[in-house]
Amino acid sequence: MKKSYSTNKKKINEILDILDKTYPQAHCELNFKTPFQLLVATMLSAQSTDKTVNKVTERLFAEYPALEDFLNLDPGMLENSIKEIGLYRNKSKNINEMCKELVSRFGGQVPSTMEELVSLPGVGRKTANVVLSNAFGIPAIAVDTHVFRVSNRIGLADSENVLETEMQLQRNIPKEMWSKAHHLLIWHGRRICEARKPKCDVCPLTENCRYFKKLM
Questions:
Q1: Whole-angstrom Cα distance, residue 19 to residue 32?
Q2: Given 2, 10, 55, 144, which residue is catalytic?
């Protein structure tokens, strides 16, 4: 059963406004040129950094830019190309199977619905939301480790569950702001609200932050 959590709309708007002013350039930091490339890059990004993924995909996409090229890669060849990334064996297998299903089930095109995306091997809600938002311009909030941590610390959500957090954020944040808020929360998590040592001394959200107030 999902928690019915909500917070004051005025407070939500204030938090989003502060984040927007702090990170006006916030955007997806994975490099890609097509929906397929974004799907692959996002699958690779699990338990890895965007910096590492971008380093790997710069070489990978230069040699294998499209789905047709990936179809000629067996898991062993792909493993060798992405071995700098964590869980590379499992990711290689999932990407290989995902490519085959794009051809057999979707005519070689990356689908643009949540239901279809999560039906692909290795694709969960987070990956699907990233693709929907950044490749297709569909409002979505992908809850990665940064979004989960920051949103629960500053009070945009109140849950220990990733799916509940996503549902709460969808209710609390105006739909037209979902994709933007996703990037703002990620940027804040990477640059200030770090997991182990959050930089509360330079954070612009301390007045609205439940985590900071508990420290006082």
A1: 25
A2: 144
Catalytic residue among 69, 126, 180, 214: 126
CATH 1.10.10.10: does it fit domain 9-26+141-215? Answer: no
26-35 pLDDT, tens digit per residue, is 999 999 999 9
Q: Is 197 among the catalytic positions?
A: no
How is the chain split into domains, by residue range?
9-26+141-215, 35-136
**In 31-53, which positions are buried (b, 16+ CB within 10 angstroms) versus exposed (e)?**
ebeebbbbbbbbbbbbebebeeb
Active-site residue flag, 144: yes
pTM over 0.90: yes
pLDDT single digits (tens) 80-126: 999 999 899 999 999 999 999 999 999 999 999 999 999 999 999 99
| Domain 35-136 top-level CATH class | mainly alpha
